[in-house]
From TrEMBL:
CDD domains: HAD_sEH-N_like
Entry superkingdom: Bacteria
NCBIfam families, A to Z: HAD-SF-IA-v3
Protein name: HAD family phosphatase
Taxonomic source organism: Paratractidigestivibacter faecalis
Pfam families the record matches: Hydrolase
Coiled-coil zones: none
Signal peptide from the UniProt entry: none
Cross-referenced InterPro entries: HAD-like_sf (IPR036412), HAD-SF_hydro_IA (IPR006439), HAD_sf (IPR023214), PGP-like_dom2 (IPR023198)
């Protein structure tokens, strides 16, 4: 019996868009204000701490308010509450995930994201048939460290050698390879990704 193949998708800029500049523009009325909002929220190191589960959303809000002009504080609050609404589905990868699922592949998500991940992911076509999700903000483990990939495999009973990890970040792909997976850096060329997966036999 053939070993089941598994594909593990990153979320941001693979299944859903993530663009802090675009999000900031959605909650402001000028480029100057959008840049100030971006620098106070998405451009801060604390954003990574939020994704790692090191700080919570209230702490992120306090930090963002402390680093943006007072005239933008209402924008900061609205942005932090509602930015996931402005993350758009990337249709080609979602369509590919559906076809892989229908062909018998396991389909998983492993993302560096906060514990609010479902506010984005639940709007994707892939969400309804995922075999598992691992998110850094809940596990307090981050890509590209190998531990989060090992956790995915142990939790869902996967052999890393049967898994292909798809991410837009080269370092994260290297982390997956170090954990024993195959990996593909996705740059928006869906045909290239399909060819890579098809070449795995």
């Amino acid at each position: 019996m053939a070993t089941r193949k598994n594909v593990v998708f990153d979320m941001g800029n693979v299944l859903m868009t993530f663009d802090g500049h675009e999000f900031s523009q959605a909650f402001t009325s000028s480029e100057e204000d959008a840049q100030a909002l971006y620098e106070g929220v998405f451009g801060r190191v604390e954003w990574s701490l939020l994704d790692s589960g090191t700080i919570d959303h209230q702490t992120m809000l306090r930090v963002a308010l402390a680093h943006t002009p007072e005239r933008l504080h209402a924008c900061v609050r609205e942005c932090l509450a509602r930015w996931p609404e402005h993350s758009r589905v990337i249709e080609p990868t979602n369509d590919l995930a559906l076809r892989l699922h229908e062909a018998g592949w396991g389909v998983y998500v492993l993302s560096n994201a906060s514990d609010r991940i479902e506010e984005q992911l639940s709007r994707t076509p892939v969400f309804g048939f995922l075999d598992g999700i691992v998110v850094s903000g809940r596990e307090r483990l981050m890509k590209p460290g190998t531990a989060i990939f090992q956790l995915l495999c142990s939790r869902y009973g996967l052999d890393p050698a049967t898994c292909v990890f798809v991410d837009d970040n080269a370092d994260n792909c290297e982390g997956a390879r170090a954990a024993g997976m195959d990996a593909f850096r996705y740059t928006g060329d869906i045909a290239e990704l399909e060819a890579f997966l098809g070449g795995l036999g």
